[in-house]
Amino acid sequence: MAVKTLQMILYGLKMVVDNYPETIRRVIIINAPIYFSWLYAAVKPVLPDTIIRKVRIFGTDGWKDCLLQFIDAEYLPAYLGGEKADPDGNPLCETFIHRGSVIPKSYYMLKRGKKLSLEPDVDKLTVLPRSKEEITFFVKEENSYIEWEFETKNRDIDFSLLFREKSFGDFESVVLIPQQRIDCHETERGCFKCEKVGNYSMVFDNSFSWIHSKEIYYKAGIQSPRYNNIFDTM
């Protein structure tokens, strides 16, 4: 659980820092278990300085003084070491801090949104552990569009889009969409404008998994600028 939590925090922080620089001034994690700090220390050498400077992780001690360095006591809730309280004196400040609670089962979305695998014209692809698979289209006309939608039966998969002018010889692939981890909970949809004639490859990469195969359900094709299907699957 700690690994997933740390991964989620760092991924979210990196996304905000990359796309909305200086929006986050500081991230302070308090009451973290000791192994959480160990995990952070292990990944810290590969993190950019922009993230390292913003993150502070504390166990049970030391965090109150740190919070007061950045937040005036009159605005910091009493249960966090400040002076702010509810009108009735409640130090938890429940009148303006809305805490999480149990999510009603009526809001559960697990498997509910996965409908692509039930469609009759969908294709299925199995990606073995420590391997990857490519689905390649040859685009015959400039400014066509490659469109796709896919979902995994369970677990995540890495996805990227590559371009090669020729399907043979020493032509290197050009990365059009960098590899990114796709969550398994919802159907992924995308579109890319193909400005050149050549081979466009959707890559499903399962190299990070040592044990689990991934089942991919997908629909993909090339749409011409005149909205006529002109694709050939290699």
UniProtKB/TrEMBL annotation:
InterPro entries: CRAL-TRIO_dom (IPR001251), CRAL-TRIO_dom_sf (IPR036865), GOLD_dom (IPR009038), GOLD_dom_sf (IPR036598), SEC14/CRAL-TRIO_domain (IPR051064). It comes from the Eukaryota. This is SEC14-like protein 2. Residues 1-88 form the CRAL-TRIO domain. GO terms for cellular component: cytoplasm. Residues 64-222 form the GOLD domain. Pfam families: CRAL_TRIO (PF00650).
